[in-house]
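Here is one chain, start to finish.
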Amino acid sequence: MSCVFLSIAVRVAETMFEDGSLLFFIPLFVIYIFIVIGNLIFFFAVKVDTRLHNPMYNFISIFSFLDIWYTTATIPKMLSNLISRQRTISMIGCLLQMYFFHSLGNSEGILLTTMAIDRYIAICNPLRYPTIMTPRLCAQLSAGSCIFGFLVLLPESAWISTLPFCGPNEIYQIFCDFEPVLRLACTDTSMILTEDVIHAVAIIFSVLVIALSYITIITVILRIPSVEGRQKAFSTYAAHLGVFLMFYGSVSLMYLRFSVTFPPILDTAIALMFAVLAPFFNPIIYSFRNKDIKIAIKKLFCPQKTVIFRSMLAHRHLSLWMLL
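Its structure:
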């Protein structure tokens, strides 16, 4: 048995070296592991640290959790295709991948819109923020984003599954997507334009809501008299803006082009941006220069040191009080 496994491993390695797949497999595998571990650490760090139990960090933790499944819908199949001679996927597998990938992407898009509105209320109306963004409303918005993201694509996915597919069975994309799959259908292809319009309206609406929120936030921040106050507000706001630009920038390039066609290499690069690179940079952007997250991550991995440190501080305060 060991000889059989060894021969299979050698064949796989030879295949990977022949077509250069190994050059893509290793970086993609490392990126995927980083996305899963990084987002899991971020998610549990927020849940463990009670100081981070507020709407902003709750939304970010849900976003990190969705990122794990968003990438899991496509990257494992990409990795298996890179080490396999037979780079195929079943029709059911293709439809399921398309549904879960876009449903999770929709949920993230709705959540980003919710986060933009949350930041708008926090900065533009800080006195009423605790009464507006209650824990109950925060939980409802988080659950609603996920549920609506999955429900809105059910009719479209069910309709695509009933279409007759024949002729060429190759899609020129790194994962199953609406347009490449619809082009395989043996029916009138004018439906693709309708699909593009529906997706474009949803994307443009979300972008407009987020952009208006952030423009208003910028005008309010610029009115803050103290330099320190402006810097603190911008540091919180910059992370959200960076994630928004990366996610919706690549999504807009992919789905707001209608009949415009890009070269296959550029098409693949754009798909990699929002399917792989955006989830890769999200935990870095949200953790970079964020002291609260860094402390929460340290507490997650070194809880005993944190308890000992706190007990030493308490003992010191008690000794000082007794001396006084």
